[in-house]
Amino acid sequence: MSRSTSATSWADRLPPDGRTAWPPEHPTHLSRRSPIESVTEREGPVRTRSALTDITTINALLTGAENEARQNGQSVPGAEQLVVSALALPDGTARRTFERVGADPDQFHKAVSSLRVAALSDLSHGSADSTAPASGLPPANPSAQRTFQVAVQLSKATKPSQLVGAHVILAICQMEHGTSAQALSSMGIDRAVLRAAAYEELGARS
Fold first, then answer.
1. For an engineered disulfide with 46, which of 6, 20, 51, 135 has Cβ 3.0 to 4.6 Å away?
2. What are the angstrom distances between the C-alpha of 195 and each of 54, 151, 161, 166, 177?
3. Rounded distance, CA 153 to CA 171, Å?
């Protein structure tokens, strides 16, 4: 039985330029509309237990990404914040995916932080894009919205069809550019190899 409410998730409402302020409603509170409801409305009902599991995972994933973004002075999360949040999910599949390729999952956050420091250094020396915001912080981008949507779709194509951290890793493996791709490259991780590891991890669940 689905819940009825008019609030929409931040992932559904983020505009193409990704520069909006954070929506005033908290997007991931269980008493309001969650992204899984939008998906199930379009693609049919989901078993109650599976839906509740997905809602719990989505709440943890988006809340974690939101908190990580705020710590970095960003109003809207990027894909890299979703990955950091996915690595903290209790299902452990995102962490094990990194471990399958011999990488320390905790190094991803450090790689992202290093890229951020480098970007801010470029800004301070006037070598960054002139379109950067006056605050001196890298602009928010819509990559989190796209990453989240792809992860949800991928979760529906695997068995069991429940969203887990490895689906987020699969989603960023499709990204050729952006902070997440740069972080993986700096860690010496091949996206195709990581993608295969994510599928192996998901296969171990079936």
1. 51
2. 22, 13, 18, 9, 16
3. 9
